[in-house]
């Protein structure tokens, strides 16, 4: 709980005070502090430490037993100490717990949140009792949030301080005069119910501010289990709305829904937070990546990815429940004045059996879910089109009564699903509501394997299921570019459906998509296209960013794979864009778009029987410069207005590629691709670069720096190391909405060998975390290993790079040579923790 939940307590050693209306209570003379024994509180701290360590006779308790034991321990100490101080029935004092102890959710290192109530006692007596209660706890280094009040003072604070009111809603009697405690608990709850109309807007504003500050647990780099959206604070919010008699406390999510409902989600969040305290040995609410494996193992959940899935599932369940709770509470607010005389909301028809009522989508009075299998998709489509939420009662009624769709689906049901997917951003909340209540899984039973599944690649910002929905959202914006928009949005929804099952997710997903499409009653030709979209959804981005587009065999391979079908090529082009946009910031950009666009253009030319463009011959001016044997650097803007062509001519000597890449990186130019050539004994290397920030450096400066590097006057690796360290130390925290859960750590680097179409070449693909000057380090490793690089394609996806190098096979002709080269390359990459085998993404 936050410091001073009642609005006037103090934290840490210090005198007790009573604030607010009523007589002030002095702290007494501090000279008497030495007479206050802290021995019993020290015993409390020792007993707590033994519970946490499992020392002596105590075995290591599970999280639920540990919380119960901590509650019992603190209650026993407070009751015993209270009796020692004369805090008994009818004494005019009461000890009341709020926070974790009040909720019976005491965590290992939670603050002890207490109120010392008194019946307007003499200030000197109050001060003496408070000091004798607080000081032993402080002396034992037990963190304490406290306040001393009369009941009217406490009620006055709760009436003016919303945070204090929420804290006192959880108040529970511990020791002393139970009538005083009952007056406080009953008074606060009664005051909360009668004043909720005037405080509701403030409550929602405070909640939304907390969400913005702490982000979503399901999509946060290092989630805050307590204050993040979908966390424990939101469960307490639901309880507060229930106390106000505006909701039932568990709106629409019982134990039968996926994940076990709200109660199970609450328990899992508590378990993870409890274990986080025990692992960190301190009060901590933010789950850090380095603790995730240990916590997952202790809770017998699995590794950090398994823990991430559990957390995501729980947080999304809580988050959905809160959305429903807030909406229900807003509609249930008591009316007053003339508003009481107004008629209730009218029902506006939206579709057959579907109406709008009170700002929500509901079933019409004459709807019969048991006899209408298509009602689920019809309700979903109507909600998405109208931009309205589906009422919790409607979702519950559909879940309890709607039958399974027969196979094949009625055509109207498939049409309604396509309407839902084509409605863009409004479909997200509708699908989330269907999924949290078990209805989405009834339509797509295969969804369970990807539900809340964390990505294995750090470039993904969403769980796999949310990524599929986001891809469909972006695809809906591209429907005017394709002849079959229905297949585009459906393929977007299913393109990664094969993940989480082992094997190549594209192959597995194609089989699943065939089964789903057949169940939906798709025409055989459409089903074949859908299957091909899922099977080959990575073909265009992989080929465009990792192969030589000037090679006709590259284009021919794509055309052959697609069977020469221009419609499939068109759909895959749009799907590649939607997939990239839905992956995360920076994954789709001008450079990637231009590469895929060029590949698609060449494929269309080949499908139409036209001749492919040939690479331009070397520029005569460059040929003249190369013949002269001098160092030459040129920078020319490209058509996209952002990137540039950096052409470097230098004598063909070992290390020239590494030095060139290093100079470019040192001056803030990020390399997107590199083409390595030679002429008249000189290297002619062309790089496509983009400035990381600001204007590009002058070409003459780059030429002088390259000459310094070639002569040994400039230690590029040392300069790049210093710049890399400075960048890492000064890196800003990730924005919550752009981050991935902390348990999704950076995947380890991977090296993959491919056979090129040219028998005189071998392709090596590298996937790793990016760093400043990475291409320079890799080129240096290639050259030290004696491998000649013909061309390179460099792609940066967020913090991850996917680089493809065409290598002369003489440097990688044996297994031993390849292993030596791999070791040299891995040595310059950032080290990461190992992980489970993952699908290619």
UniProtKB/TrEMBL annotation:
Residues 645-723, 763-839 form the ACT domain. Residues 1-35 are annotated as: Disordered. Its EC number is 2.7.7.59, 3.1.4.-. The keyword Magnesium applies. One of its GO terms (molecular function) is [protein-PII] uridylyltransferase activity. Gene3D superfamilies: Beta Polymerase, domain 2 (3.30.460.10), cca-adding enzyme, domain 2 (1.10.3090.10). It catalyses: [protein-PII]-L-tyrosine + UTP = [protein-PII]-uridylyl-L-tyrosine + diphosphate; [protein-PII]-uridylyl-L-tyrosine + H2O = [protein-PII]-L-tyrosine + UMP + H(+). Residues 1-349 are annotated as: Uridylyltransferase. Residues 13-28 have a biased composition (Low complexity). The keyword Repeat applies. Keywords: Hydrolase, Magnesium, Multifunctional enzyme, Nucleotidyltransferase, Repeat, Transferase. Residues 464-565 form the HD domain. Uridylyltransferase (UTase) activity is inhibited by glutamine, while glutamine activates uridylyl-removing (UR) activity. Its cofactor is Mg(2+). Modifies, by uridylylation and deuridylylation, the PII regulatory proteins (GlnB and homologs), in response to the nitrogen status of the cell that GlnD senses through the glutamine level. Under low glutamine levels, catalyzes the conversion of the PII proteins and UTP to PII-UMP and PPi, while under higher glutamine levels, GlnD hydrolyzes PII-UMP to PII and UMP (deuridylylation). Thus, controls uridylylation state and activity of the PII proteins, and plays an important role in the regulation of nitrogen metabolism. Has four distinct domains: an N-terminal nucleotidyltransferase (NT) domain responsible for UTase activity, a central HD domain that encodes UR activity, and two C-terminal ACT domains that seem to have a role in glutamine sensing. Belongs to the GlnD family. PANTHER family: BIFUNCTIONAL URIDYLYLTRANSFERASE/URIDYLYL-REMOVING ENZYME (PTHR47320), BIFUNCTIONAL URIDYLYLTRANSFERASE_URIDYLYL-REMOVING ENZYME (PTHR47320:SF1). This is Bifunctional uridylyltransferase/uridylyl-removing enzyme. The lineage of its organism: Bacteria, Bacillati, Actinomycetota, Actinomycetes, Mycobacteriales.
């Amino acid at each position: 709980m936050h410091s001073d939940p009642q609005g006037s307590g103090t934290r840490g050693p210090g005198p007790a005070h009573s604030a607010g209306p009523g007589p002030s209570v002095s702290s007494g003379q501090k000279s008497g502090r030495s007479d206050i024994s802290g021995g019993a509180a020290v015993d409390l701290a020792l007993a707590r430490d033994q519970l946490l360590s499992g020392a002596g006779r105590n075995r290591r308790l599970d999280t639920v037993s540990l919380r119960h034991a901590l509650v019992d321990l603190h209650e026993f100490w407070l009751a015993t100490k209270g009796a020692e101080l004369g805090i008994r029935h009818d004494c005019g004092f009461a000890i009341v717990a709020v926070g974790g102890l009040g909720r019976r959710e005491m965590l290992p290192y939670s603050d002890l949140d207490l109120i010392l109530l008194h019946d307007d006692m003499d200030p000197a007596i109050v001060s003496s009792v408070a000091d004798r209660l607080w000081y032993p706890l402080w002396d034992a280094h037990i963190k304490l949030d406290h306040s001393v009040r009369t009941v009217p003072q406490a009620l006055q604070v709760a009436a003016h301080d919303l945070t204090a009111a929420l804290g006192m809603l959880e108040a529970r009697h511990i020791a002393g005069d139970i009538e005083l405690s009952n007056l406080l608990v009953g008074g606060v709850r009664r005051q909360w119910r009668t004043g909720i109309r005037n405080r509701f807007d403030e409550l929602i504003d405070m909640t939304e501010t907390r969400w913005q500050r702490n982000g979503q647990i399901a999509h946060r780099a290092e989630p805050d289990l307590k204050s993040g959206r979908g966390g424990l604070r939101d469960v307490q919010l639901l309880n507060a709305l229930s106390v106000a008699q505006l909701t039932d406390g568990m709106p629409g999510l019982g134990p039968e829904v996926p994940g076990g409902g709200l109660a199970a989600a609450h328990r899992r969040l508590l378990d993870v937070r409890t274990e986080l305290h025990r692992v960190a040995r301190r009060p901590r609410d933010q789950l850090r990546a380095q603790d995730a494996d240990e916590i997952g193992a202790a809770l017998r959940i699995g590794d950090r990815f398994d823990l991430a899935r559990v957390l995501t599932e729980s947080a999304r369940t809580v988050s959905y429940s809160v959305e429903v709770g807030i909406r229900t509470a807003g509609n249930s607010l008591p009316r007053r004045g003339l508003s009481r005389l107004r008629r209730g909301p009218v029902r506006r028809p939206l579709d057959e059996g579907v109406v709008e009522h009170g700002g929500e989508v509901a079933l019409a009075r004459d709807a019969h879910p048991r006899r209408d299998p298509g009602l689920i998709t019809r309700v979903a489509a109507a909600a998405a089109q109208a931009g309205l939420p589906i009422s919790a009662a409607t979702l519950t009624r559909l879940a309890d009564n709607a039958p399974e769709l027969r196979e094949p689906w009625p055509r109207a049901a498939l049409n309604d699903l396509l309407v839902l997917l084509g409605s863009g951003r409004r479909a997200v909340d509708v699908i989330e509501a269907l999924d949290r209540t078990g209805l989405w899984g009834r339509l797509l039973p295969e969804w369970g394997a990807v539900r809340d599944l964390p990505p294995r690649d750090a470039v993904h910002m969403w769980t796999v299921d949310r990524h599929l929905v986001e891809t469909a959202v972006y695809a809906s914006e591209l429907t005017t570019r394709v002849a079959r928009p229905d297949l585009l949005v459906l393929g977007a929804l299913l393109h990664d459906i094969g993940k989480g099952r082992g094997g190549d997710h594209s192959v597995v997903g194609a089989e699943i998509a065939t089964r789903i499409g057949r169940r939906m009653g798709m025409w055989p030709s459409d089903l074949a296209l859908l299957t091909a979209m899922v099977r080959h959804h990575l073909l265009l981005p992989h080929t465009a960013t990792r192969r030589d587009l000037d090679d006709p065999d590259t284009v021919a391979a794509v055309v052959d794979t697609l069977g020469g079908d221009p419609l499939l090529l068109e759909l895959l082009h749009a799907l590649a864009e939607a997939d990239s946009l839905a992956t995360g910031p920076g994954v789709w950009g001008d450079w990637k778009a231009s590469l895929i666009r060029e590949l698609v253009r060449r494929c269309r030319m080949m499908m139409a029987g036209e001749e492919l463009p040939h690479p331009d011959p070397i520029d005569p001016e460059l040929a003249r410069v190369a013949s002269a044997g001098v160092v030459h650097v040129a920078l020319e803007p490209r058509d996209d207005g952002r990137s540039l062509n950096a052409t470097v001519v230098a004598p063909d000597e070992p290390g020239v590629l590494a030095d060139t890449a290093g100079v470019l990186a040192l001056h803030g130019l990020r390399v997107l691709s590199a083409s390595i050539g030679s002429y008249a004994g000189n290297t002619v290397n062309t790089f496509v670069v983009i400035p990381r920030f600001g204007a590009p450096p002058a070409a003459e400066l780059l030429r002088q720096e390259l000459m310094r590097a070639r002569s040994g006057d400039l230690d590029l690796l040392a300069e790049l190391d210093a710049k890399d360290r400075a960048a890492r130390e000064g890196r800003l925290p990730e924005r919550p909405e752009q981050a991935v859960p902390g348990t999704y750590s950076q995947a380890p680097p991977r090296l993959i060998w491919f056979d090129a179409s040219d028998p005189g070449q071998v392709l090596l693909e590298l996937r790793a975390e990016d760093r400043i000057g990475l291409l320079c380090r890799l080129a240096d490793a290639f050259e030290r290993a004696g491998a000649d690089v013909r061309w390179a394609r460099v792609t940066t996806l967020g913090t991850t790079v996917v680089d493809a190098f065409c290598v002369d096979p003489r440097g990688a002709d044996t297994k031993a040579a390849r292993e030596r080269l791999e070791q040299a390359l891995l040595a310059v990459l950032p080290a990461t923790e190992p992980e489970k085998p993952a699908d290619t993404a």
